[in-house]
């Protein structure tokens, strides 16, 4: 079997162009042709461009794979997505077509996301982006930062990542509070925080950080009313999912200078070049870097190669069912 009539593999959304170097794709054999896509494929072009491929390798939720797109991919036999879960992949539609779905291990994403959360918090408090630009531009200090010791850190969600952020907040001398729908005082204490009412978390916190899974019940959980309760100059951090926050309400509050924000996630990604969030001076923006580390990506791609090899042997690993 030659590459021309063999298995075609598409590795999507390889933004940094590192996938080829982080795993032994050649170990799959000469009959497997692997192609790497750095630029996102527009939804309108996805069916035509992906139709020839036998295997799609997805980086987290960057490329949604819904039933309509799946139906337009006649050669698709295997999907591998990185991380443990991917709500943007319609596993039921894939199962109905007899297409195997595999995932990878999570890597250090939880730890790395907690670290980035703290970095965004410090960047906002000390006006670091502006002062970085000052130094690059030959200027000197122009802003007054704020210390975090004695301030209140409110965590919306106290799971694995939230608890790590709580630990750093306490190390900085912050008072740490938390709220989520099913959080009890005992579980909050075990996670390093004090349980407070949802309204109090927004009105009393100097920093509010989101650590919740996006679901129908949590979409827009931070809306106009919640933002209005926040103290003037308070910091809102989101390293979870963009749609947890009402984007229009957030943009309005930032343009009015009522709050500050550190944002790693957005409603639509990549964030369009002309998006209004790019023009606000009181927001620190990063391009969804929470899980993006060398060791995590190496694990992702090594696991992806392992999944393809297992599927070819008839013994797929880490199979995902609907």
TrEMBL record:
InterPro entries: D-2-hydroxyacid_DH, D-isomer_2_OHA_DH_cat_dom, D-isomer_DH_CS, D-isomer_DH_NAD-bd, NAD(P)-bd_dom_sf. The keyword tRNA processing does not apply. Residues 118-290 form the D-isomer specific 2-hydroxyacid dehydrogenase NAD-binding domain. GO terms for molecular function: NAD binding; oxidoreductase activity, acting on the CH-OH group of donors, NAD or NADP as acceptor. Coiled coil: none annotated. Residues 31-317 form the D-isomer specific 2-hydroxyacid dehydrogenase catalytic domain. Keywords: NAD, Oxidoreductase. It comes from the Bacteria. Belongs to the D-isomer specific 2-hydroxyacid dehydrogenase family. This is Hydroxypyruvate reductase. It comes from Methylobacterium frigidaeris. The lineage of its organism: Bacteria, Pseudomonadati, Pseudomonadota, Alphaproteobacteria, Hyphomicrobiales. The gene is hpr_2.
């Amino acid at each position: 079997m030659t590459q021309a009539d063999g298995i075609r593999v598409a590795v999507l959304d390889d933004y940094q162009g590192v996938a080829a170097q982080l795993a032994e794709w050649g170990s799959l054999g000469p009959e497997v042709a692997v192609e790497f896509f750095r630029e996102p494929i527009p939804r309108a072009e996805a069916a035509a461009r992906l139709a020839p491929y036998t295997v799609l390798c997805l980086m987290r939720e960057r490329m949604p794979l819904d039933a309509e797109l799946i139906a337009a991919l006649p050669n698709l036999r295997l999907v591998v997505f990185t991380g443990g879960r991917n709500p943007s992949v319609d596993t039921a539609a894939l199962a109905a077509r007899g297409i195997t779905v595999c995932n990878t291990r999570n890597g250090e994403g939880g730890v790395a996301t907690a670290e980035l959360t703290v970095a965004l918090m410090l960047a906002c408090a000390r006006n670091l982006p502006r002062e970085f630009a000052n130094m690059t531009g030959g200027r000197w200090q122009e802003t007054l930062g704020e210390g975090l010791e004695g301030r209140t850190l409110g965590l919306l969600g106290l799971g694995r990542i939230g608890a790590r952020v709580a630990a750093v907040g306490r190390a900085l001398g912050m008072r740490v509070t938390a709220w989520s729908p099913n959080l009890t005082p005992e579980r909050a204490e075990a996670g390093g925080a004090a349980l407070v009412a949802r309204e109090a978390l927004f009105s009393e916190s100097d920093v509010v950080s989101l650590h919740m899974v996006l679901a129908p019940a949590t979409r827009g959980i931070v809306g106009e009313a919640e933002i209005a309760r926040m103290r003037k100059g308070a910091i809102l951090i989101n390293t979870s999912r963009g749609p947890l926050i009402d984007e229009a309400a957030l943009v309005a509050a930032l343009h009015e200078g009522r709050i500050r924000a550190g944002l790693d996630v957005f409603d639509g990604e990549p964030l369009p070049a002309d998006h209004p969030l790019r023009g606000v001076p009181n927001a620190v923006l990063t391009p969804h870097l929470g899980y993006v580390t060398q060791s995590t990506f190496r694990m992702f791609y090594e696991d992806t190669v392992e999944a393809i090899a297992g599927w070819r042997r008839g013994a797929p690993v880490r199979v995902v069912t609907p």
